[in-house]
Design a protein that fits this description.
Elements (H helix, E strand, L loop, with lengths): L1 H12 L5 E5 L3 E7 L6 E7 L5 H8 L7 H4 L5 E7 L4 E8 L10 E11 L5 E7 L12 E2 L5 E5 L5
Length: about 160
């Protein structure tokens, strides 16, 4: 989990190579080739008219959190094992897509939540196997490379 958090911090600090691919008045999505796998990294950025604490309540990875209520791509989120107050092993499921052409997925990740001195909040995760969470029938087991969310306060 700590390695995933550090990888996300490195992505954030390195502005090189990001190319814009979609943009609305509220969100900008960029991509760049990954150095870790054969594919691309993606990031979405936007400024929300809310306090960082209210935004964090919507995105933080906790059981019973708000993410399953607003994110149609997250069907369920459960904590398999709480390792500490800030680190846990979690299972996230996603619904089928494209008229069930794409099967439901499940992801088992080790997740860390951090808050930095400047008020930035981070959730970072990466794939892990856990004996209490073997692959479930009717789900395709997904694999996450280091991924996560930053909630960064901005003046005003």
């Amino acid at each position: 989990a700590e390695a995933a958090a550090e990888q996300l911090r490195l992505y954030r600090r390195d502005p090189d190579g990001w190319r814009g691919c979609r943009s609305t008045g509220e969100v900008a999505v960029s991509w760049r080739p990954s150095a870790e796998f054969a594919g691309n990294l993606y990031k979405g950025e936007g400024i929300l008219p809310a306090s960082p604490q209210n935004v964090w309540e919507c995105i933080k990875p906790v059981a019973g959190g708000l993410r399953t209520k607003w994110d149609q791509n997250v069907k369920n989120f459960e904590v398999i094992e709480a390792i500490s107050d800030t680190v846990s092993v979690c299972r996230t499921t996603t619904p089928s897509a494209c008229m069930r052409v794409i099967s439901p997925r499940e992801f088992v990740d080790v997740v860390v939540m951090k808050q930095y001195e400047d008020g930035t909040m981070l959730s970072a995760a990466t794939n892990v196997e856990h004996p209490l969470c073997p692959p479930q029938p009717n789900f395709v087991r997904g694999f996450n490379y280091p991924c996560g969310c930053f909630c960064i306060p901005v003046p005003g």
